[in-house]
């Protein structure tokens, strides 16, 4: 937004400079027209003089006026060429600034859209993380209940000793395997004796 404001200020300055240059160009054109009017007035004045006076006056005045007009025209043509060049450069700068403003606005819109998408993804991930945490707590709770049941079933068997302290998962598995082996052996022994 700051970049757009800066570009717009530059654009306003350049457009103001362009208007000033065009105004100066119009002023130069006006001065040139005034010179043409003065020249026409002198021409009309010479027409009213006698032939001899007219020739003498024409020679002197026209030489002087020609020099002056030639100098003025040269200066004004130079100024007009310079003003036209400046106007062209300013117009190019203004076009470039306008293009930069459009580009910056487009980039800003893209950034806003990307920010919204990232925010939406973050919210979705946060929701998914919450669901995962709840599911994990539920599974952990079920696992603890199942583990406690296994421990209770394993060490409540007749002839088994109470655990010496806190049991690891390996301790529980070994105790379960021992009970399974014992029951399998007992079942095999009963089959061998023909008992149902």
- Mean of residue pLDDT? 83
List the uncertain runs: none
Q: What pattern of helices and strands is seen along the backbone?
A: HHH
| Rg, nearest Å | 52 Å
> What portion of residues belong to β-strands?
under 5%
Keywords: Coiled coil
Coiled coil: 4-45, 80-128
Protein name: CCD27 protein
InterPro entries: CC-FHA_domain (IPR052642)
Write the layout of secondary structure elements.
Layout: H1 2-48, H2 51-155, H3 169-192
Helix pairs in contact: 1-2, 2-3
Q: What would you say about this model in short?
A:
With 196 residues, this protein is mostly helical. The protein contains three helices and no strands. It folds into two domains: 3-120; 124-194.
Characterization of the model:
This protein has 2 domains: 3-120; 124-194. The mean pLDDT is 83. The radius of gyration is 52 Å and the shape is rod-shaped. By secondary structure, the chain is an all-alpha fold. The protein contains 3 helices and no strands. The relative contact order is 0.06.
Tags for this entry?
coiled coil, CCD27 protein, mainly alpha, 3 helices, CC-FHA_domain
